[in-house]
Hints:
This protein has helices at residues 2-11, 13-45, 54-86, 88-96, 101-141, 155-182, 185-188, 198-225, 233-268, 276-287, 289-322, 333-357, 359-371, 376-415, 426-445, 456-465. It is mainly alpha-helical. It has two domains: 1-193, no CATH class; 208-466, no CATH class. Residues 191-195 have low confidence and may be disordered.
Amino acid sequence: MRSIIAAELRSAWGSWSAVLVAFVATSFSIVLALLTMGSIADTVATGTLPPEEVPALQFVPGWNLGLAVIGTLSVIGAVTALVVQARRGALARLALAGATPGQVSRILMAQLAIVAAAGALVGTLLAIAALPTALAMLLSDRSVDAAQAVVRVDPLAALGGAVGFVLFALLAGLKQSRVAARIPPVEALRTVPGATPRRRMIGRWIGAILLALLVVGMGVLAITFARELEGDGADVVLQISLLCILLTGSTFSVAAPLAIGALTRAWTALVPSRSASWTIARAIVITKGERLARTVTPIMLTVGLLVGLGFIGASAVELMHSMGYQDVQGVTTVSLLVLIALALVISVSGGVSVLLMMSRQREAELALSGVIGATPRQQVLIPVLEGVIITVTATILGLAMTASGLVVFVVGLNEIGFRASVIMPWGLLVSVVLICGTVVVASTTLPVLPSLRRPARQVIAQLSAE
């Protein structure tokens, strides 16, 4: 059994390496949040912190832990399902060789346990290394001297976070492995997935419509009743505007398989290019709708959250400065980043993992393009342009997320008598898009470059054998 598990790990090192990226990021986020909570508690116990800053300092680590857990729930299940789906052929061969469904499930779970433990170990070490910086950033944001921080690595908290993550990863993979083990070998060898069930599509439409109505309803209520809340009205408008950004992102996530393909087809049709590389890349992206939805969603959330919070933060700071407040805390871009940094780490890692796991599909697509006459230069440009298309689509949706929050923010504050205006931190927008674009293009291009050095027919034959 050990030799089989080792052989399976070696044959699937590409897929498991992609999963490892998400595992490291999620375990890092959970352990860092736990260690920060302990260190903040020790810092508060010294009695040297300003009393008015203690509640905010105690709130942020717990908030980040909650977001990290929520992100873990979605990311781990998704990447685990993808790697199980990618290993369907290998699992089918094990079944054809005489392995029982229970043995197939145990082989897959053993691989998952090894990769999860490795990811937890690396993530924990990174969290320990990042703890002093995280504490300094948290205290500095509240205008507290970072030298007062008590940096203490609680081994029980670190071990508990790592073990808890591994157990959750195994729990997420248990159902997937059992389902995969029960698939008849002949069915598992099919490489073309079936059509999406109509009931699932209807459910997505209903969910997206309900979430959209919730966003509109919350925005209207905040704008309508903000005046009646007097002094607390501005705080309510700010909170609701941030919540609208998050809920708009959730709406787009639910509707992604239904609408992202149409959006991508629409804006790419406006590009006046007859390049063969562009035409092939556009056709691949639009045709692979499920792959597009899975890769666009985390990048969209990253762009929407960072840009939206940056725009609202800059606008809020400008408003407070115009009212005579010079010492502004808690609403700057850094303050808002402190609240969502770990969630963004998990979101980006999930997107990168999905992109890396799809590299085998891209190798096959590029090999086929070579068979029909694409030049080596065109084969390199195709994954680059695919990454650009993904980034632009994600940016459009991210800006739509931002717009929903800005409308509530500006209209709501003007309703209660504040002359709010939108401050555009263009540097932040350009930086976020460039960084996300670089990560996406690297993830779509670098993994497939080795396959371009081999003959196309050899690549196709190897992928068919796998």
